[in-house]
Structure formats: structure tokens, C-alpha cells
Amino acid sequence: MNNTMVAARPVDVAKADPVHVDMRGVTQRYRTGRRGDLLALDRVDLQARRGEFVSIVGPSGCGKSTLLYIVAGLLEASDGEVLVDGKKINGPDPQRGLVLQNSSIFPWRTVEENVAFGPLMAGVAASKRRTLTKHYLEMVGLKKFAAFYPRELSGGMKQRIAIAQMLACGPSLFLMDEPFGALDSLSREVLQDQLLQLWERDRKTVLFVTHSIDEAVLLSDRVVVMSPLPGRVKEIVPIDLPRPREEARASQAFGQLRNHIWESIRQETMEAIG
Ligand code: ADP
Q1: Is the CB of 40 under 6 A from ligand 1?
Q2: What is the pLDDT of residues 88-110, one digit of tens each?
Q3: Does residue 259 line the site of ligand 1, with CB under 6 A?
Q4: What secondary structure letter does DSSP report for 40?
Q5: pTM metric for this prediction
Q6: Secondary structure E strands in the chain
């Protein structure tokens, strides 16, 4: 782990930071045929301040992905609204970058072509595209693999392509749905550390869905615990561990926060399975 890349400065979100994402009464009903509607989200009110790292955890089916897709503009909420920088969203926008568990990189394009795709679509000139691509490939440690095809790379490397692809579009908001969920634990830790470094340097707003409580505590300023059926915000846990966080995994405070969140989710899971 190269700590020299991270300036040891306080990066906790100031209370005065402006609200970046404002979810107001977000409700989602899915039509499920003869069984009637399923209330996947019920009046979710949640805010993320500019530069804040917010994770969303909760048992399977509590609506985490649904909420993220609504903020991405890929799904229109049945009710309620999402404001980004005070403006109601209306469909997807390159300012809101999305990374999924198995992100959709193009298998027939090389690593660099994949990363350059967003800027290409945005009409960025070829020379600027090359500079951007080089910059982001370097950032995620894939510079040497620019000419490779995705099939020649490991799962962790493919996820790094997806992250570089998102970064190259220059979003101010990162929406990440289990981005490291399919990786082995070592690759996962490496990517967590890289994401932390990136975030501590650039301070973009992040909404991060994960099943891993440890991951949520490690990365976040706040962890949102959701309860299922209907999906609601149960609890918001501020993570007041000092940054940089790489050393925090072994601390007592980390363990206490993890146990608290684990217990909160366990209660929900027990109720859900009766
Ligand atoms: P999570 O990400 O927390 O696991 P999801 O957002 O995927 O939860 O799903 C929330 C609930 O909505 C679940 O009960 C799921 O089965 C249901 N659901 C999700 N997508 C659809 C869909 N397209 N049609 C019907 N039900 C859906």
C-alpha cells in the first residue's frame, strides 16, 4: 500500500457542505402480475452532501439497487423525486457515473478503447481523449494493459477498467452497486484502498451499495441501513473514524461500528425471514 499518495489531511465532510443529492419521498412499486404490486421503496428521504461518501447496506431485497438506479436516472420512481444540485433529475446524465458488480465493458474493444468510449461519445477531440485515457489508466494501475482485451484480464482488472471508464466521463457523483462484490478478498482490499485514495484526493460524492459491512465502515462518512419490504431507511450511522482509513481496519472503534451495523441488519433479516 503506497501511503505516500495520500495526503494526511482531515477530509471529513463539513456540515456546511452543500447538499448534492436529495432523495425526497422516493417510492417504487413494481408490478408483479397476479400477486399485485410490490412496494420496493417506501418514501425514502436521504441526502448526500457534496464530497460525502455514503454507503447503503441492508438485507437482500431491501431496495438498495432500485434506489441507486433511480438516482442514476435509469428507473423512474413511482413517486417522490431526486434532486441533484437542487435540480430534479430527468433520466441518465454523464455527471452521474454508474459502476455495477459486473460492469458492462465492451469485450471487443481494448482497455484503452473502453476507457475512451465516454469521451468519444461526448465529442472530445482525439488528442484530449488520449491524454484523458492515459491519465485514468495510470490512476487505476492499468497503463501497461492499454492494448489488451478484457478477456485477457482478471476480474479485478475488469472492474478497474469499469472504474476508469466512469472516471473518464468526469462525473461529479459516483454511483457504485457492489462494485467489488464478485472479487476475491485480496483484489477487493486492493480496490478498496485504491478507491479510498482516489476519493481522498478528489472528494467526489459517492453513493455505494454493498453487502459488506466492513467495506461500508472502511470507506464511508455515513452508512445507511435499510430495512426490507417495503424498503425504508432504518438507521443512518455516522462513521467518525479518522482518515486516511487504511490503518483503521484493526481498530477497536472500527469493530464497534461494524458490530452495531451488523446487529441492525440482523434484526431486519430475522424479521424478514419470520
Ligand atoms: P437489493 O438491491 O437491496 O437486493 P433490489 O432493489 O434489487 O434490492 O430489489 C428490491 C425488491 O424489488 C426485491 O423484492 C426485488 O425482488 C424487487 N424487484 C427488483 N426489481 C424488480 C423488477 N424489475 N420487477 C419486480 N420486482 C423487482
Answers
A1: yes
A2: 999 999 899 999 887 778 999 99
A3: no
A4: E
A5: 0.89
A6: 19-31, 37-49, 53-57, 79-84, 87-88, 96-99, 173-177, 205-209, 222-227, 232-238
